[in-house]
Amino acid sequence: MIESSGRRHLSPSAALRAAFAFVLMVPALAYAHVGQGDISGGFLAGLEHPVFGLDHVVAMVAVGIWGAQLRAPAIWVLPVTFPLVMSFGGILGGLGLPIPGIEIGIAVSAIVLGAMIALAARPPLWAAGIIVAVFAIFHGYAHGAELPESANAISYAMGFVIATGSLHALGILIGVINKWKAGEKCLRAGGVLISLSGAYFLISHFIGG
């Protein structure tokens, strides 16, 4: 849309796509200036933490799938909201501020997000954003709390933000099948499995604890 001033304005969906790209690209660009000593001590550790934690993987992929189900602008808003708020949670975890029930919150995130997918729930965008943001704090706190003593905190944060964005992107790609009737049913069945996995993580927490 072009106003009388001659200025061209981006549509909300285009702006959100640009924001999502910014979130993923800035850490990667900054990483190019991180010394080699920080790679093994920080970036790779941050990259591995979400990927090798099945509870993190399930929830982060679910965010992308749910966003794809809700379509624009949620398909961009949710995957941008999660890593942004997760970074804040990471700071809290790195500082060691006491927040109870972190593992419970992570398990519940899979249960709730899976249920949203299974039910094809369509809450208002602001409500979906709040749900994602609350769970992002738990996941981010867990990443920050497990920062290796020898690791560079900035490169570590870059690692887990990039890994998270990649998992969201995977979820979005999976969610594309929602365009077809059979794909919609598959996604909803997948949501049930995600919720069940969250229930497993929750039970394991109490049994193991």
Helix-strand pattern: HHHHHHHH
In quaternary terms, these chains amount to single chain
Count of β-strands: 0
How does the overall form come out from the CA principal axes?
A: globular
Number of helices: 8
Task: Give the helix/strand class.
Answer: mainly alpha
The Rg value, from CA coordinates, equals 18 Å
Estimate what percentage of residues fall within beta strands: under 5%
Poorly predicted ranges (pLDDT <50, ≥5 residues)?
1-37
> Roughly how much helix do the residues carry, as a percent range?
over 70%
Give the overall average pLDDT. 82
Distance between the termini: 57 Å
Q: Mind summarizing the main beta sheet? A: none
Estimate nothing, just give the exact number of structural domains: 1
Polypeptide structure, described:
- With 209 residues, the chain is mainly alpha-helical.
- The protein has one domain (54-208).
- Helices cover 78% and strands 0% of the residues.
- The protein contains eight helices and no strands.
- It has helices at residues 12-31, 36-51, 54-70, 74-95, 102-118, 125-145, 153-175, 181-208.
- Helix 1 crosses helix 7.
- The protein is globular.
Keywords:
0% strand; 8 helices; single chain; disordered N terminus; mainly alpha
Outline the fold blueprint.
Blueprint: H1 12-31, H2 36-51, H3 54-70, H4 74-95, H5 102-118, H6 125-145, H7 153-175, H8 181-208
Condensed summary:
The protein is an all-alpha fold and 209 residues long. It contains 8 helices and no strands. Helix 2 (36-51) runs parallel beside helix 7, helix 3 packs across helix 7 (153-175) and helix 3 (54-70) runs antiparallel to helix 8 (181-208).
